[in-house]
Amino acid sequence: MKLIIINGPNLSLLGKREPEIYGANSFDTFFKELQQKFENIELAYFQSNIEGEIIDKLHEVGFNYDGIILNAAAYTHTSVGIGDAVKGIETPVIEVHISNVHSRETFRHVSYIAGNAKGVISGFGLQSYTLAIQSFLE
Question: Is the full-model pTM beyond 0.70?
Fold first, then answer.
């Protein structure tokens, strides 16, 4: 099985940015743990703060991967383009959020991705990614 995690803006700051919301671990450290835990899966990772790069990556992998785990971060609530990219590809996408976006500011309650995603996982910290991987295995 071939899966990719795509992270959006500011997620490169995990472990430093608002640890009370996002935790104290960097994503690079967590990704290594995921690779060890799911050693039978070909697991890739991509992060960008740039909307167009995220769209380009979705186009690149959206026809030859078994699954995409997408945390578009703030772009979730603003990017029609990323939502359209998810709609336009064949690979199933699970939208993931570290925090419970529905317990935060009202603007975070809107997702331009969710309607085109296989599912949404929100509010379980970094374990949201683990749950997404497990959903592809079942």
Answer: yes
